[in-house]
Amino acid sequence: MDYTVESDITVTTTHSVVKRQMVLKATESESTQQVIDIKFWLFLSGNTLNSHKHFVARLKQQVRLQEVFTVDECDFILGFILVSRAGTDIEVAMKKLHSVSDTKPAVLVVLHHTLDPEYVVPDSSKAVNRENMLAVDCLLGILQCLKYNESLAKTSQYLLREVKEELRKTNMTLEKNQTQSKDKERRLESVVKELETSKNKLTERDGQLQEKDRLLTENTQTLQMKDETLEEKETLLKQTRAELDTTMKELEDSQRHMEEKNTQLENLNKMLTENTETLKKKDNKLEEKEKQIKEIEEELRKTNRTLKKNQTQMKDTERQLESVVKELETSTNILETLGQKQRQLQEMMIIVEQQKTELAEKNKELEEKHFLLKEYSQILQMKDKTLEEKEKQLKKVKKRIEKNEDIRNDTLLREMMKGPHLKYFTLVTGKTLGHHVEIEMKLQKVIPHLQKVMNLEETDFILVFCPVVSKAGTDIEAAVKMLITQAGNKPAVLVVLHHTFNPELIVPDSSRSVKRWNMITVDCLFHEDQGLLTCSKNHEALSKVTNWLHPEQPDNMKLISGEVNQATSASDNQNDMNWSGGVQEEPITSDGTSTASTVDMEDVEAGGPHTEPFEMIYADEVDSSTPSTSTPSTSTPSTSTDSSAEMKDVEAEKITDMFSGNKVFVLVTGNTLKAHEKVIEILQTQKPDLQVVEKVNESDYILVFCPIASRAGTDVEAALKKLQDIAGTKPAVLVVLHHTFQTDWVVPDSNRAVKRKNSVTVDCLFHEDLGLLHCPKNTESLERITRIIKPPEDQSQREKGPEKEQETETKEKDSVLRILVLGRNDSGKSSVKNIIIGKEEKAAASSAESTASKESKNTEGEVAGRKVTVVETPDLFSAGLPLEKLRKDVEEAIKLSKPGPHAFLLIIPLPLSEDIKVNTEEELKVTFTKMEEIFGDRCLKHTMIIFSVTNESVKNTFNQFEKNKVQSLEKCGNRYHFLNIEQSEDGSQVSELLEKIEKMVGGNRENYSSEVYLKTLASVGGIEKKISSELEKQDHPATEKMRNTEKTTKRKHEPEQEEEMEQSPKMPKFEKENRENREMEIQKMHEEENMEKERNEMKTFLSGIWRDILNSNMKMQEEIEKKDRQMEKDNKIYAELFNMLNFPKDQHDT
Which family does it belong to (predicted)? Predict the structure, then answer.
């Protein structure tokens, strides 16, 4: 081994240190003796005519310079610029110089081309913003001048200054290097000393290590001997371990085998137990079926016995006849008895034949019932057609009645104002930022005789400006209240100002929240900087106001109307009824009936504007003879409207024919967040036979879902292109999904962007968390789709039998008052029930309240000569109530209160003291929401709150509660009643309660019914019996009702008509005829309303029936399929069990 390595290293390090010291000294001496040359890089901008060379040569005489050819090597940049215009050329040169290097120092020589040595040039240094840069000026061509010498001096001084600074920096660096070198020398001397000491130590260690090496060689020899012995022992250990591993594996395999067998046995035992249980259940079912079969067999045996008895009787009679014949041969006296016996035999034969005929008759009756069902459906279809025709007539009648009422109002308005000028008073209800003046100026330009006054008494109408600050509804209500308080019943124009910068903003129609008859309402958009926005909405509003105030437009108004027609052509269908003023006045014919104007029922149904000009309202009153002077052109629009209505009916029939099938292909053009699945589910509930297919060729029509991601127009166009590529010209329903969380969000009508012929377009609102929103827009769209896709058979089946149900309901309504008592367990429901019925069961009531009745209870009684049924329900409003129990409790309550309760009594106990923290307002909100979820949205119209108290002092404190908690009571129409539970003997509180209930029932006109009631009654209440019993009645109840209603209405109106004719003999003919026509139209209207009610009830009733029948058939099929599958599984399990039980002998031995 070599132990001299460290000593060699120390020697080499000392030599290197000495060499470094020598090099440092040499560099210091060279740096002191050396003179620095300044390196520069030449930069030229323009043709200098080699004058820069002369400048560089003169500069080298003063300063030692060295030219380099790269920017990185130079110490500074020397630039020469030929100037034509000082500013621009210097800027261009500076940009080039900056692109070359922005950090290096630079000297910029600006060369001015001139021959005048005394030419005064501008100082170019002012145009230079760079810090480390010097700019000097020289005259090109005149080298010997003061300017040239000054620039040379400046540059030489600048460079010398730079050189001095660089020398100073180099001296500083040299001093630092000297100090660092001295420190390094000191460190090296210390290192040399340490190395010498380490040398001595290493020599001593070398001797020690040599002795240790000798000992190590001896130890290695002994270790080798021991390793050999260990290797022999390891081989033996490996052999023994291999034998142990083999034995352990054999043991583990045997254990696994045993565990598998145990698990198999356990599984077999479980299967056996399960099979035994299933077998027991099946045995029980088989026993029940066997019992049923035995019962049927017994009945068959009985019938066989009766037949055998009849046969034996026949044989006996035959034997008797034989004996009688024999006796006849013996004696003639028995002839009379034989005649009687023959008659008896004939009667017995007749009875047997009658039994056979009865069976045949029953079969015929069943066939006749089936035939009657078909006839009944055909009759209902005919009835639907007549109803639809009558509905059209009703709409026209309502239209005429409204027009007649408007004419009356117009006569009042005409008397209010006569004069050459239109005077108005301005009323501002908020901060308009002075933009209402702009609207006034525009109106004054269009209407020349419009004049503003400062007194309300002088005005003809009032111009109201209402800026929307908080909510449109509340601000408009406040403005209308202010108008009524200040102006009373004067005509008004309400301009609702919406603050926005978007000229295409869609705002809700404000005329819907205004119910003042002599008032017009418009919406305008404005901004504080732009004023009134230039948009179609504002043009439309101004044109409508001017048309209402002054229909005869001057030339300047024609321009505005032209702009409005262009701007509002796309938005006419969107805004509903923008005016709340009168309807256009129509001329009256000689027979008293008003002729149809150009804007008829189609405009009202489409939601278009229908206003009357202001000057027509305030025109002079027309004489009674003037209607005869109406031109023939006024009669033509009626025919056009009738023909257009017929065309609409034809188009509706064509649409239903297009969507008559039940197979639909679903096309989704974007991310709907599974909202389209909810739409399909709703449509399948409305149309159970609706099938979703996966191929376009198999479908009857296509359901397209188009979520709006970017813009409505582009997304709808993309969806239509995709539909055209996939389906061609197949019928399609396009559902445009708008993403929002606001239920009252106003969206543009997507139907405008669709020009496809055989397609229907609807809009829906959805959200990623809420799914399809519960809003009028979605219900309207879904109803429209269901009306289109439902076949007429379903409609006829729906409309089959509401007359039957209504007859029974009206009979029960007249006889029994049904009350459903709701509330929590501790509210005192049973005590309230007993007080109403009049039973003294205080102890039982208290015990029942403590144990909380778990089922609905039905109690009947008679109160004040009226039959009353009170149904007490369990607690339906607790938070931890399971859904299955809630469903059963609701079904039980509905069964007991069928066909529907007249009143819901919600029992709420009032707190006795302030220590009990019961928030009655919060309780009312929670219970109302749960009631609407359970019983339907309209249940609160039939609801009354019963505040159960035990102390009269609580009633006095209710005044404060009513002031602070009005909102919750308004939902149920502020109907409430106090009931003292302790004073059950006081009959006055019960009589007051029944009076309030009777008032509520009279206001609602019928008992409560909803989809929940119809579904449960259809599944529980014996539907087949009702249908069969009603079909046996030959005379239809609907026709009887129609006759009865016609008779009653005639009887009611005949004396009134006679009295009016007697009282008004001087009345003009046309007014009498108008009145008679109006009365006849009102009669028809009432009849049609009754028919509509009956038809709607029939639809709901039959829809529930058919759904339940289909569900029951589906359930029966599913149960049969489940039983078949279970039998197959059982057979497989038994086969496996037998195979497993038949073990061979070898397996048993193991």
Answer: Belongs to the TRAFAC class TrmE-Era-EngA-EngB-Septin-like GTPase superfamily. AIG1/Toc34/Toc159-like paraseptin GTPase family. IAN subfamily.
* Exposed/middle/buried for residue 796 (C-beta within 10 Å: 0-12, 13-18, 19+): buried
| 435 lies in the same domain as 544 | yes
Q: Could you tell me what percent of the chain has a pLDDT over 70?
A: 64
Interhelix angle for 1069-1141 vs 1011-1020, to 10°? 50
Query: Rounded distance, CA 354 to CA 347, Å?
Result: 10
Domain-terminating residue out of 581, 611, 638 = 581
Q: What is the pTM of this model?
A: 0.27
> How far is CA 962 from its chain centroid?
35
- How far is 78 from 156, CA to CA, in rounded Å? 12
From 558, 536, 549, select the one nearest 579 (Cα to Cα).
549
Pair 762, 836 in one domain: no
Range of the domain at 891: 798-1007
534 within a domain of the structure (yes/no): yes
Co-location of 99 and 133 in the same domain:
yes
The pLDDT of 393-406, averaged and rounded, is: 70
Question: Could you give the CA distance from residue 477 to residue 498 in angstroms, rounded to a whole number?
Answer: 15
Asked whether residue 810 is assigned to any structural domain, the reply reads: yes
Domain containing residue 979: CATH number? 3.40.50.300
In angstroms, the CA 992 to CA 579 distance is: 45
Contact between 116 and 147 under an 8 Å Cβ cutoff? The reply is: no
Distance CA 799, CA 227 (A): 106
Judge contact between 108 and 133, C-beta under 8 A: yes
* Alpha helices, H only, 467-598: 472-487, 536-549, 555-567
Q: What is the CATH number of the domain that holds 437?
A: 3.40.50
The dihedral through the CA atoms of 447, 449, 455, 457 has a sign that is: negative
The 8-class DSSP code of residue 577 comes to -
pLDDT digits (tens, 9 = 90+) for 1134-1144: 677 667 655 44
Does residue 294 belong to any structural domain of this protein?
no
- The answer on 804 and 785 residing in a single domain is no
Q: Going edge to edge, which strands form the sheet with 857-863?
A: 857-863, 866-872, 816-823, 903-909, 943-949, 976-980
Q: Which of 54, 56, 51 is nearest to 41 (CA)?
A: 56
For 993, the enclosing helix (H) or strand (E) is helix 987-1004
Q: What are the b/e assignments for 684-700, b being 16+ CB within 10 Å? A: eebbeebeeeeeeeebb
Residue type, 226: K
Structure tokens at 657: 């024919």
Q: Is there a single domain that holds both residue 764 and residue 854? A: no
Contacts of 862 (CB under 8 A, 6+ apart): 868
Cα–Cα dist 732/709, whole Å = 21
pLDDT in tens, 635-660: 333 333 444 444 444 455 556 667 77
Contact 841, 788 (CB under 8 A): no
CA gap 8, 15 in Å, rounded: 11
For the chain, report the end-to-end CA distance as a whole number of angstroms.
71
Span of 64-78, 759-773, 880-894, 1096-1110 with lowest mean pLDDT? 1096-1110
End residue of a domain, out of 564, 581, 598: 581
Within 13 Å of residue 214, how many CA atoms lie on the same side as its CB?
A: 5
- Measured over the CA atoms of residue 547, residue 549, residue 553 and residue 554, the dihedral's sign is negative
Q: Are residues 808 and 926 in the same domain?
A: yes
What is the rounded distance in angstroms from the CA atom of residue 127 to the CA atom of residue 862? Answer: 111
Give the torsion sign (CA, 772, 777, 779, 780): negative
